Amino acid sequence: MKHLIRLTTISAILAVCISGAWCQTNYKTLAQNAVNDVMGHFWSTSTSSTAGYIQYTYGGLITTQSNRVLWEHATLYIAMENVWEGTGNTTLQQQLLADWLHCYPQYSGQTITSCGSGKTSPAQDDAAWDCFLMIKAYNATGNATALADAQTLANNMFNRWYDSAIGGGMWYSDSKAIKSLYQAASVLDYLKLYEITGTKSYLTHALLCYTWLEKKMLRTDGLYWCDNNAVSGIVGLSTPYAIQQAGSVTFLGGNMAMGVIHARLYKDLGDDIYRQRALRTATALRTYLTDTNGVYVDDRDAWTDGMFAGEWAREVLTLPGTAPGDVQILKNTASAVYTNDRESTGYYGGCWDGPVGTSGDVWSNGGSTPQQIMTSSEAIDIIAGAANLP
Amino acid sequence: MLLVTVFSVALALSCAGGASAMHFSDSFATSTGGISNWTACSGGTSYVSGSNSYFRINYNGDSSSWNTNWVLDNTFSYQVNANVDTTYGSSGTSANADLFFAMNDLAPSVSLLVDAQYSTSNQGLFTVQWYNTGNSTWTSVLNSGWMSGVVPNMHIQAIRPVAGCNYLTVSYTCTNGFSYSANTATIDPTFLDNLTLPGLREYDGMVDFSTADLWSPIPVSLIANIDLKMFIGNYSLMNLRVNVLNSSGQVVATQTVTPTSEVTPVTFTTLAAGNYTVSAIALQYLSASTPVTIVANQTSSVSLTMLNGDINGDNFVEDQDYSIMGASWYQTAN
Question: Which pLDDT band holds residue B21 (cuts at 50, 70, 90)?
């Protein structure tokens, strides 16, 4: 039945568009359909529509073993939260609460807030996604434990990986080989925690990492490099436009995060320089990270590239001076994911403009398959982003 | 966890001193914690005189303090007021009142020093030096020489005006009207990028610092996009001057830049709100001007189109320009 509804929806959209008349897609409906698709694979069965939980995964696939990976869980949770924010669906909100209450005891005690090699969040980005999950859980449910855990993990993350090597910033992992754009996710965690709690140290943490990214990773074309190696420097410096699906010297998700950071600083501080930086980031993504159909390229990381689409829609694409084309790109990408990137079984791939599940699916060929919770969740997070547009 | 190998390439946010994240300011007033937002330094105390509050450093040697909540972005403007006081028996009124910058925010130390030295005989010496970790040496990039007419009440400022630039603009002014400003010689821009925190330093005397202030990044007030129509030639030989005039016709800001394309954006920072005129001047182009209103905390932008062909520079393209060109018609360089 769900698939029938989808075909009806698409037919209706196409009919209007083919007629040459006004064409408007209801992205809130698409987002709800898409999250239903993915929850259909990963949400536990339950007698109640508001109970249940996201099943635990390892390598993106459901596991009943103890090797469950929290950040994989986070990808779907964050997509669900963005759909809730975009649609206001209260059932989804109740499901977010149910999942958090189920999830928390599975990682009880210190484990959920610990980070570093061998811990729940082994690397900086894992910690950032997990912290983001907790912040989202607090945002959607008001659960005080979620906020407390987010703060503990945020502090642990900074204390473990921040130092002054390469001029500042956080290491990607305990190996201390690279500092990366992935820490933009941590900056957003810190800014949100500062906004919620007013604790000044979070602002300082955010600014220290943010200014390092702005000084060390910003390129002259407005994009950000992804990796800065402690020994050899910027990775990919000689191939700046080696940017394509399944491999890139930059990182769409990190660039979107930087745009959101700029926008949030503009909102909070009221100074125009941050708005200009946000618009600069949007222009760079439009110029260098879209395909010929005006669809964002899922370039580097099919498991996290869509993570900030909701924030991008709400906070960047609503700024004064936003180019209409930038709004359209997010819509184009959401439509492409829904029509070109969805398998008949309701999984979504890493090639957002298609193909999916065939030999041309370079992401699947590289090991990021639609059947993994992360790959599907990131794709639908893009649709969730479009659902958050005003 | 995922870090994909790439081609095998391998609110008002309140801060210490009651400022925003971008504008940090500390008056050292007891109501905002005195000097508690700064690291304790040798001889450092909170000092109040009447309604004025100070960060007093009284030490017969080298003493520095920094603020770990103040963060340097890719541009900055850092300034402080400083009064040199009479100290230490017969040594008179002399001391070094300095701004400094640290590279390591976890273990800050002086990496770049903007040093204003005051001597009893109303002499001042202004120097800037930075520590090159590559060869472990201090490199001097400014030395004003001893200057007369200086008084002990001074204002010191250091600005990195443009992201990625390789110099600082520094100034040393006094309450009696004395003024000195200069750009430093070249400083490794990577070194400047690595600066993370600002600080205050005193050497061998007693200094009362008041109202330390940091903008970082520096807010942009105005972007003037100058279109050099039909430019043909080598941009590197071209000078484009853009002036900002207030309502009285006085130039309040000016920039001379070398264009790199037909349209050149020229930015101006920290202009006060008000009505201005922007004018652009370039050799062999008709000058152009346009009014603009600057609004606080916003970036205004204007576009100016400049027309080519004013060969004699009289702001009128007519027969004389044509005659000059005609006299050279079909001639080539020797």
Answer: low
How many domains does chain A fold into?
A: 1
Tens digit of pLDDT for each residue in B131-178?
Answer: 988 788 999 999 999 999 999 999 999 999 888 889 999 999 999 999
Amino acid (1-letter code) at residue B163: A
The 3-state DSSP class for residue A266 equals helix
CATH T-level topology, domain B220-327: Immunoglobulin-like (2.60.40)
Q: Does A320 touch chain B (CB under 8 A)?
A: no
Q: Is residue A228 part of a domain?
A: yes
**How crowded is residue A293: how many other Cβ atoms within 10 Å of its Cβ?**
13
Angle of the A27-42 helix axis to the A2-18 helix axis, nearest 10: 150
- Helix or strand holding residue A90 (H, E): helix A90-106
Across the interface, whether the CB atoms of A211 and B14 are under 8 A apart is answered: no
Q: State the Cα–Cα distance between residues A286 and A9, nearest whole angstrom.
A: 28
Cα–chain-centroid distance for residue B254?
14
Q: Is A122 among the domain residues?
A: no
Instruction: Flag the least confident range among A100-114, B13-27, B286-300.
Output: B13-27
Whether the per-residue pLDDT at A222 is higher than 90: the answer is: yes
Structure tokens at A332: 């184009």
CATH superfamily of B13-215: Exo-inulinase; domain 1 (2.60.120.560)
Helix (H) or strand (E) holding A116: none
Question: Which DSSP helix (H) or strand (E) runs through A4?
Answer: helix A2-18
In a domain, residue A165? The reply is no
- The CATH number linked to A341 is 1.50.10
Q: For residue range B199-222, what is the model confidence (pLDDT) as tens digits?
A: 999 998 999 999 999 999 988 889
Instruction: Kindly report the nearest CA distance between residue B160 and chain A, in angstroms.
Output: 13
Contact call for B219 and A227, based on CB within 8 A: no
Binary contact (B193, A229; C-beta < 8 A): no
Q: Tell whether A15 is covered by a domain.
A: yes
